[in-house]
Amino acid sequence: MIPSISLAAFALLLPALAHRGGKTTTQAPLSPDTDWATKHMAEEHHIANFDPGAFFSLHDYDSSGGWTPDEVRRTYGLDDESAKAVSAGKREEVTREVYRLFDMDKNGIVEREEWMGACENGVRLPDFGLGPGHHGDDEYEYEIHHFEKYHDENTREEDLIHPEDIAHFAKHDREEAEAERQEILNRQAINEANIPQKFRRQ
């Protein structure tokens, strides 16, 4: 885990924001015709091959043996901050098409057996042009998409100067400040901020 770094420390480093040096990735490049699920496994999980059973289990987030529409949307990264601009229509298209391809009994759940059977017949998850499907939390996404590419276990705090580093730790600082503010409010018998102005003492 990387220690918390104050935003003020980063402000001093703003002139040096360009990516310099860093780690080179050892992952082999994917061919342009690689299917979406294989790309997803490589980019989001650092797993170089596609195994239908493992893919299904990894994305069966509640371990129920079936994918719900919410799990399909999450797998495609539609719950991620980066997908805020994706329209409701596009979100519906994703689930509708995945269910058309894999929900053979039309019961609203893609069961493991349905998934495995379709994969054996060469059916693959479509690429909707939404990216690799970010579905980890902020910490995971930062680690896998930035820290692992440009830093390593020998990285010092003063080396974390890329825009992604600054944004990541600034968010931590905001969350910590908000938690501290809330803690102070929780200790107060009466939270004056919650009293409408007309009822406050003048």
Distance between the termini: 49 Å
The dominant shape is extended
Number of helices: 8
> Mean pLDDT, rounded to whole units?
77
For the sheet with most strands, the description reads: 2 strands, antiparallel
Report the oligomer.
single chain
Q: What fraction, in percent, of the residue positions are helical?
A: 40-55%
Number of DSSP-assigned strands:
2
Radius of gyration equals 22 Å
Order of SSEs: HHHEHHEHHH
Strand content: under 5%
Strand order of the largest sheet: 1-2
Poorly predicted regions are 1-25
Structural class: mainly alpha
Task: Offer a concise description of the structure.
This protein is mainly alpha-helical. Helices cover 45% and strands 2% of the residues.
